[in-house]
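$ ./design --mode recover --in tokens.txt
reading tokens...
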């Protein structure tokens, strides 16, 4: 098997699980997903600093907690308040809290390579004896993510109602290429001459009416100072969030990076981007 998909596993009990988990969280690069059906403020407090550090470093942190539909006759107000208090502590650390009915599996995902599953409720365990298996396996991560639908954090998908809407409003690839070309002050004929791609092909690409080879698309993107990356679907909210935060930082600092022939100091239509004062 390719080393990329190599896997190993080890077993932890309630006595040494948290030490292993915290070590993995300190090394997390971009993603932490936890399904812990039950919450307890006392246990959440013990993990608060570690979770806050993850959020501060830009790690996408999402928690799935159990909440079953209840009638007024079966509603446990005290339990609801107990859970709500723990959930608020999590939110204060930057963790996204999602409620789902009838879940009972205890699961952890860290980046795209580490997964835990077993019997221990990470955010509520106290005195019970438990065990958790730690998998270092991209295949196991994919299996758990897909089986238990862990790529559906509402906050990540909607970013408080903004990010997902903005994404839907984005023009398609062809329109993005056209926008970049116009910002650089280039005609389709000029781009065709530079890239050695037929102008008719460029025109069809911009209108979304042409399927082209990947090598052709890459050559076109490169000349227009564009690019793309391939990522796992569950990584997209983190990537989108990073881009959104970067744009907001630029806006607050009073600078926007624009590729436009009207930007002062631009030496040529293909010289790249220059900062523009917005304040």
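writing sequence...
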């Amino acid at each position: 098997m390719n080393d990329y998909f190599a896997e190993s596993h080890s077993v932890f009990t309630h006595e040494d699980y948290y030490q292993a988990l915290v070590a993995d969280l300190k090394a997390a690069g971009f993603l932490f997903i936890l399904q812990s059906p039950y919450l307890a403020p006392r246990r959440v407090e013990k993990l608060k600093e570690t979770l806050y550090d993850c959020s501060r470093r830009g790690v996408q942190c999402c928690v799935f907690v159990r909440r079953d539909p209840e009638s007024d006759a079966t509603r446990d107000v005290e339990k609801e308040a107990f859970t709500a208090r723990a959930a608020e502590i999590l939110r204060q650390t930057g963790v996204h809290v999602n409620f789902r009915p009838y879940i009972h599996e205890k699961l952890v995902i860290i980046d795209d390579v580490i997964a835990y599953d077993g019997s221990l409720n990470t955010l509520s365990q106290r005195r019970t004896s438990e065990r958790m298996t730690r998998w270092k396996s991209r295949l196991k991560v994919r299996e758990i993510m897909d089986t238990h639908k862990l790529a559906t954090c509402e906050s990540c998908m909607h970013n408080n109602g903004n990010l997902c809407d903005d994404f839907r409003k984005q023009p398609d690839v062809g329109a993005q290429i056209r926008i970049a070309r116009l910002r650089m002050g280039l005609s389709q004929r000029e781009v065709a001459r530079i890239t050695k791609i037929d102008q008719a092909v460029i025109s069809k690409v911009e209108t979304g009416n042409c399927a082209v080879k990947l090598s052709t698309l890459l050559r076109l993107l490169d000349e227009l100072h564009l690019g793309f990356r391939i990522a796992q679907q569950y990584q997209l909210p983190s990537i989108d969030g990073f881009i959104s935060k970067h744009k907001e930082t630029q806006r607050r600092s009073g600078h926007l990076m624009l590729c436009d022939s009207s930007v002062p100091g631009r030496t040529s239509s293909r010289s790249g981007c220059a900062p523009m004062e917005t304040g």
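exit 0
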